[in-house]
């Protein structure tokens, strides 16, 4: 089915064509599907069409759309999509997130914009200072609602929603229909309609998943060994901790592999520069913590490597969803130690299939572990017993709910309120 059948106006269709898209994915045509299938366009395109209708009808300009997202990276990603799709429209957009100065964001809100994309923490700070008039808001989008719940943003979201018009359309996107998310739908929406496409717990079918069983001390060497294959040309590596990410980056750089990092200790400018360099091919490897797992939208990622096996099955789905996007193919590799066998089995039950085990050709698995450091700790990084909890973005605090099991397909809840 071509985009023309969706009833979009000519300027929007022109932008879609210039972006290289020919037909909508199922998520864009009818609802929500697995990660990596075009979720952002599913809500951006209809909203742009509605905004044009409102402008044509002579309705007063002002902030008519608010999109809330859990991380700065996701805000930037959504903004890039909006900019691409609205390039031929007289649309004014502002982004609001922490880690950068407030003044440009305040001036943008004061100058008058049509659409605001924000993290809850910084937006609440600015609205608390009476910046931004949301009295004419028509559309509210809660993107990655489950992630915002886990990161402790619910109190901020409640305060933000309390200041919005009751008559609005609210769209909520989530990777789960847990009791907590169900409660949110009843709190923020009236008789919401649920739309789902695809199986909830399965990642995109175009991703080849492999497991490499390896001792903890050999993981850095195995990563370097795999990266000697030129087919690993655009590689996203996930770790549990920001310090682990820095150690891996130093190891790869010392081996002559151009590497960048993204985690909560990096400034916003550093994070944006890392993403820009990765997209442009200036660096071959990007090492990230889970904070960035849902905010990285880069075409052509050849491999995702779970250097540290994720503690939550749903995080695995979102990590590997960074490759194999939009019908492309990709590989997802997970390093698994003896301590990870239990979580691995739980993951296989979660996604409903086994993952192929593989050994790297030409790699020496017999290298012994280094002797203990003088203080009694092991050399070479964190052991399994030191695994840390989920990390939150700089815009909010770490919240509860991270221990609940969540499913990996997207749910959409849409209703006029």
Task: Write the SSE topology.
Blueprint: H1 10-18, H2 26-30, H3 39-56, E1 65-68, H4 72-85, E2 93-96, H5 103-111, E3 115-118, H6 120-128, E4 139-142, H7 145-150, H8 154-162, E5 169-174, H9 179-188, E6 193-195, E7 207-213, H10 219-226, E8 235-238, H11 242-254, E9 259-262, H12 268-280, E10 285-288, E11 303-306, H13 313-320, E12 330-336, H14 341-351, E13 356-357, E14 411-416
Give the CATH architecture of the largest domain.
Answer: 3-Layer(aba) Sandwich
Structural domain count: 2
* Number of helical elements: 14
- The CATH superfamily of the largest domain is identified as P-loop containing nucleotide triphosphate hydrolases
Structural class, please? Answer: alpha/beta
Number of strands: 14
Q: What is the CATH class name of the largest domain? A: Alpha Beta
Fraction of residues in helix: 25-40%
Oligomer: single chain
Low-confidence spans: pLDDT under 50, at least 5 residues?
30-37, 377-417
Shape: elongated
Looking at the structure, the CATH topology of the largest domain is Rossmann fold
Q: Give the DSSP E fraction (strand runs of 2 or more residues).
A: 15-25%
Care to give the gist of this entry?
The chain has 417 residues and is of the alpha/beta class. 34% of the residues lie in helices and 15% in strands. The longest helix has 18 residues, at 39-56.
Please provide a written account of the structure.
With 417 residues, the protein is an alpha/beta fold. The chain has two domains: 3-200 and 407-416, P-loop containing nucleotide triphosphate hydrolases (Rossmann fold, 3-Layer(aba) Sandwich); 207-383, P-loop containing nucleotide triphosphate hydrolases (Rossmann fold). 34% of the residues lie in helices and 15% in strands. It has helices at 10-18, 26-30, 39-56, 72-85, 103-111, 120-128, 145-150, 154-162, 179-188, 219-226, 242-254, 268-280, 313-320, 341-351; strands at 65-68, 93-96, 115-118, 139-142, 169-174, 193-195, 207-213, 235-238, 259-262, 285-288, 303-306, 330-336, 356-357, 411-416. The strands form two sheets. Strands 2-3-1-4-5-14-6 form a seven-stranded mixed beta sheet, with helices on both faces. It has a seven-stranded parallel beta sheet with strand order 9-10-8-11-12-7-13, sandwiched between helices. Helix 3 packs across helix 4 and helix 6 (120-128) crosses helix 8 (154-162). The protein starts with 9 loop residues before the first helix and ends with a strand.
């Amino acid at each position: 089915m071509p985009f023309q059948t969706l009833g979009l106006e000519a300027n929007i269709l022109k932008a879609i064509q210039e972006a290289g898209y020919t037909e909508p994915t199922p998520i864009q045509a009818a609802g929500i599907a697995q990660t990596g299938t075009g979720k952002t366009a599913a809500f951006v395109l209809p909203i742009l069409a509605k905004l044009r209708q409102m402008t044509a009808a002579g309705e007063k300009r002002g902030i008519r759309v608010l999109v809330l997202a859990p991380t700065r990276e996701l805000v930037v990603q959504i903004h890039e999509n909006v900019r691409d799709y609205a390039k031929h429209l007289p649309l004014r957009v502002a982004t609001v997130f922490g880690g950068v100065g407030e003044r440009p964001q305040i001036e943008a809100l004061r100058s008058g914009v049509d659409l605001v994309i924000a993290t809850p923490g910084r937006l609440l700070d600015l609205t608390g200072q009476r910046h931004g008039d949301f009295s004419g808001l028509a559309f509210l989008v809660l993107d990655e609602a489950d992630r915002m719940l886990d990161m402790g943003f619910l109190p901020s979201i409640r305060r933000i929603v309390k200041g919005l018009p009751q008559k609005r359309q609210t769209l909520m996107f989530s990777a789960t229909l847990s009791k907590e998310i169900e409660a949110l739908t009843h709190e923020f929406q009236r008789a919401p309609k649920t739309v789902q496409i695809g199986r909830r717990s399965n990642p995109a079918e175009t991703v080849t998943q492999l497991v490499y069983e390896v001792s903890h001390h050999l993981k850095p060497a195995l990563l370097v060994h795999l990266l000697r294959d030129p087919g690993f040309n655009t590689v996203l590596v996930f770790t549990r901790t920001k310090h682990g990410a820095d150690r891996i980056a130093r190891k790869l750089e010392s081996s002559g592999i151009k590497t960048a990092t993204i985690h909560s200790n990096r400034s916003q400018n550093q994070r944006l520069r890392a993403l820009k360099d990765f997209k442009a091919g200036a660096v071959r490897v990007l090492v990230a913590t889970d904070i960035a797992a849902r905010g990285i939208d880069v075409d052509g990622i050849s491999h995702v490597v779970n250097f540290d096996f994720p503690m939550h099955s749903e995080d695995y789905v979102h990590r590997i969803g960074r490759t194999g996007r939009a019908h492309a193919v990709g590989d997802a590799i997970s390093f698994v130690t003896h301590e990870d066998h239990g979580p691995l089995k739980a993951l296989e039950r979660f996604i409903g299939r086994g993952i192929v085990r593989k050994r790297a050709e030409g790699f020496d698995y017999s290298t012994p572990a280094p002797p203990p450091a003088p203080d009694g700790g092991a050399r070479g990084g964190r052991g399994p017993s030191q695994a840390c909890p989920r990390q939150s973005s700089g815009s909010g605090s770490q919240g509860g709910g991270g221990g609940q099991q969540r499913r990996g397909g997207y749910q959409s809840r849409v209703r006029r309120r």
